[in-house]
Amino acid sequence: MAIRFDKLGVVIAAIAAYAAFLAPFATFRANRIVPGEGRLILDALPAVSGPLLLALVVVAIVVALLKTPLAWRLVVSVVLLVALALAIGMAGGFLTPPGNTFARVSPASGFWLLIFAFTLLLADVLTRLELSPFVRLAVLLIAAVAVGMLLASGAWDSLSILKEYANRADTFWAEARKHVTLALGSLLAAVVVGLPLGILCHRVEALRAGVLNVLNIIQTIPSIALFGMLIGPLGWVALHVPGASAIGIRGIGTAPAFVALFLYSLLPVVANTVVGLAGVPKAANEAARGMGMTDWQRLSGVEFPLAFPVILTGIRIVLVQNIGLATIAALIGGGGFGVFVFQGVGQTAMDLVLLGAVPTVALAFAAGIVLDAIIELTATARRKEAVA
Amino acid sequence: MIEIENITKRYDKQTVVNDVSMVVEPRTIAAIVGTSGSGKTTLLRMINRLVEPTSGTIKLDGVDNHSLPDYELRRSIGYAIQGHGLFPHRTVAQNIATVPLLLGWDRERIDERVDELLKLFQLDPADFGPRYPHELSGGQQQRVGVARALAAKPNVLLMDEPFGALDPIIRTKAQEDLLAIQKHFGTTIILVTHDMEEAVHLGHKIAVMDGGKLVQYARPAEILAKPASSFVETLVGSSERPFRLLSLGRVGDAVEKGSAEGEAIPADASQRDALAELLWTGKPALPVKDTDGKALGRVTVDGLVKLAARPA
Amino acid sequence: MKVFLPAALRIVLLVLLVAFIVYPGWFEPLFKPLTENNAPAIYNQGSLLSLTLQHLGTVAVATIAAIVVAISLAILVTRPFGAEFLPLSRSLVNIGQTFPPVAVLALAVPAVGFGEKPTLIALFLYGLLPIFENALTGLTTLPANVVEAARGAGMTNRQKLLRVELPLSLPVILAGIRLSVVISLATATIGSTVAAKTLGEVIIAGLISNNLAFVVQGGLIVAGLAVFIYDGLMALERVAARRMGQTVS
Q1: Residue C29 lies in a domain
Q2: What are the residue boundaries of the ABC transporter domain, all occurrences included (chain B) (predicted)?
Q3: Model-level pTM?
Q4: Of A252, C26, C110, C211, which sits with the fewest C-beta atoms within 10 Å of its C-beta?
Q5: At the topology level of CATH, where does A169-387 sit?
């Protein structure tokens, strides 16, 4: 049988080969802000593990390069990702001189490229397996548990990002709570206001263009400006409306961030509600009317259920977008993971930036997967009903 | 002339076209009929190599169609498909000019040809040339589709259910147009259809396909009179058979001596139309006249009924 | 949305926007009420005009690069040669869009340092996705009989791509570019947190000195630019689509 190459495998193999043999695996720095020096895999890991990791990478490259069964590719990519996760922790312990609390070890380009290459392989396998929504959720859960266990086991404790965390453990969780509250709370508010507004826009055509235009224009205002612009009005409300400051409304801080996120969230919710309702088949609507349903019964029994997957898509957009935008809140004292990002940028301490950015990306990523799965579940449930 | 020799197409284990051989004489129309999945479209698409055969050869005027690159081959063969496939971003004139442009004709010659074709299809060049396809009616779009296929004066025209998307009245008109065009240019046409009526009406010869095999390839009268298998018989439709047979003949060939009362039937009308007229008026006979209005004799119900019987 | 802004209003706003960028001093009385303690009402740490031009320049460079790369990639994965990459590229786009722009920006800093570069990278990567996604949609949802007709007429693969497939996908691709530009215009302001010269500087200066006038004028200029560019690209899209008898929603 002739040897056949996998085209994606060629790309993965090229990235992995470069990353494993030519790029630095970890960066060592004498303290947290001096420039670091790169270390190749063999220099970054203790005697046996270095060559072992390289051997694993070579095997994985061969499997990726050739047309191999999906199961092999799945096993290889998972094994490599786990090995890399363990190895980078090991490198931290190995490179840090004993007793030295200033020295920092962080993952370098080689590590990130290897992660990228094998995540690509894994993503390709998972895409081609066409997993059902439930299985996708299970995979996400397993990945989350695995990362949690690695964190809890202390295997990564010698890495710089976790040293930054150790210095800020309390604030980290406080900011995390704020971040999630901001993202979810503003989403909730947007759904409570946006759904009725969308239904209204669907029913009253005169309103539709006007409302959507205003919401569209709000979207074009850069986030930092919108956050900033709300400081003034909210500060005025706090001063002049009795009781407002008691419930937490202030010129700076969480309130303007919350309002800004809420305003950004309205467009996707309203627009998708309108599109979803407009997409309800005319026949279904006519049939409902013909059977004597009242307007309300038609909305709740026919239109809304049929439009639901589209509305959920809007909610997915909002949630993912809000998790990202909530980082900006830090600029106006609103808290969230952005605090670490901007502090890190200010101090040119990249590990601190990562401490803010990595959880944000992970959160947005997980939210995207979960909502995609839910959307698919509601859409397939609907199709099954339609067939039955 | 198109010579198809032992052509076979297999996808994995499924044989879509199975060892088909047939010859289409120059300047004739061959209609390929079959149910969906019979392999008729695949057979057609192997002629201009939109599908590559697994084995066998196809020769056009004695030349193997693999002797030149596929895109050059296709430029020399007209191709019209169901739903016209016009380029929505190009005007009618630009659409028709597609192949001449690919062949590198000069501007003047292209413009001339486009005008000629539009006039031939009864579309005013000044009015329709600059329009976009979505600004035309279904029948007009279909005519432009055929005009585009004929633009580079191909000797061979392949048509895949070209009239499938048209309503019955426009379809009849389009069929008449096609017959006139075919006479005008002397093009060899292979036409795929699932409609036996259309095949009988247009085809000089009919090829019936079933399950990838060529079941029968013969003149329409023979297909109707001597169906080669029960499949062909079903396709012909036993209740329609006598009328289809009549539709092949002209009234001029059924004239008897004598005279009759009533409105005269033209000699070039089909025998089927004459029988319908006789039955509708309730008369046993009607006079027949030629194109100049000269009386030729009469046509009778009895005479037509005899012609509609299975030939010996 | 049929008409984003009525024509007359559009012209007035455009004139106002340009006048403000070139002669911001004329508008001082408007912004005075937003300041406290006699703070300057108009941005005084640099020229608004040059910041606007730098802002637009950064967005333009990133967007042009994103257009070239995104369309090339979309063409590649829709050819038989690259078909193996098609499913993966779809999931990558899906995953990529969950990355927050701030994170992309912040993560680019360690790789290339402060200034324009991380901003360009973030804008490029973030702008890539909507264009790629739309180009993919355009190239994979072409009417089958039109593509078939192109092949049947004897077009080579290259001719088919350039004369039929790309022109037919144009309205959808333009919509992707429009989305990408509007996102980039807003995201570029965040670039000023890593020392890129954009209109974000004005907003951040306002946030730092607690000067609402700066925040508002920075925000308004960016929003105004976005609205007009959105509007202009929308008009282009409509022209491209109308020829084919489609309508742009």
Answers
A1: no
A2: 2-236
A3: 0.81
A4: C26
A5: MetI-like fold (1.10.3720)
